[in-house]
Design brief:
Blueprint: E1 2-5, H1 9-21, E2 25-28, E3 32-36, E4 48-51, E5 69-73, H2 75-83, E6 91-93, H3 96-105, E7 113-118, H4 124-128, E8 132-142, H5 148-155, E9 159-164, H6 167-176, E10 185-188, H7 191-196, E11 203-204, H8 210-223
Parallel strand pairs: 1-2, 1-9, 4-5, 4-7, 5-6, 7-8, 9-10, 10-11
Antiparallel strand pairs: 3-8
Length: about 220
């Protein structure tokens, strides 16, 4: 069984390795490319820095906020921060909504904070923080089309499922996908990502993580037999 991965190349290769270990074949056809924006460091310092993706640290040097406390979404984001020389996060939650709730519970939503953000993003963080400075350190540029390998695999009905790891990636895939995409399983990391491909009746992961997506994939394929 062949699974189509539409993640950015580095992320896709990591997921592919996990799928191969589970016995699946994979095809990588990234619909987004993560690029550093070349953002420059803000002039002021911040006691709190927020990041929702590991990609946030591609262009964010640790000296930007060397003494700051770091609050992040996801274990991989926390690990990427540490690998880039940042301090270990004092808050690490599975999604942006949970991170906002944790910041609110600690009465920190009014604190001066720096958000290392994507150029295209949802507004959960910005709508919750009253003294937030946004620094767009990366962008997810859209691909012009699926790879020839992916299109051929759809035509030959070799693809059994497509994994969708963000709302933006799901939207781009929907615009690029051939008609045959309606005949395979679709697994979305979140309800937001699922809404972008609602016509295909996607399965939604129980947890907004790679583990959650892979568990939902295995369940969907088992139930389809």
């Amino acid at each position: 069984m062949t699974i189509l991965l539409t993640r950015a190349p580095e992320d896709g290769r990591r997921t592919a390795a996990r799928l191969h270990a589970l016995g699946y074949k994979t095809i990588l056809s990234p619909v987004i490319e993560i690029r550093a924006t070349g953002a420059t460091a803000p002039a002021q310092t911040f006691p709190l820095v927020i990041a929702t993706s590991a990609h946030a640290f591609q262009a964010a040097a640790p000296h930007w906020a060397a003494q700051a406390r770091l609050a992040v979404v996801g274990a991989r984001t926390g690990a990427a921060a540490i690998a880039a020389g940042w301090p270990a996060p004092f808050l690490q939650e599975p999604d942006a909504r949970a991170l906002v709730a944790a910041l609110r519970a600690q009465k920190q939503t009014a604190e001066k904070a720096l958000y290392l953000a994507a150029r295209d993003r949802k507004n959960e963080i910005e709508s919750a923080m009253s003294a937030l400075t946004v620094c767009e350190t990366y962008e997810a540029a859209a691909a012009q089309g699926l790879t020839r390998q992916a299109l051929d695999a759809f035509l030959e009905t070799r693809i059994v499922a497509v994994l969708h790891f963000s709302e933006r990636a799901a939207e781009i895939f929907r615009a690029l996908a051939p008609a045959q995409a309606a005949n395979v399983q679709h697994i979305a990391i979140s309800a937001q990502a699922a809404r972008a491909i609602a016509a295909w009746r996607p399965h939604v992961a129980d947890a907004p993580t790679e583990d959650g997506v892979l568990a939902a994939l295995c369940l969907a394929l088992r139930n389809s037999r």
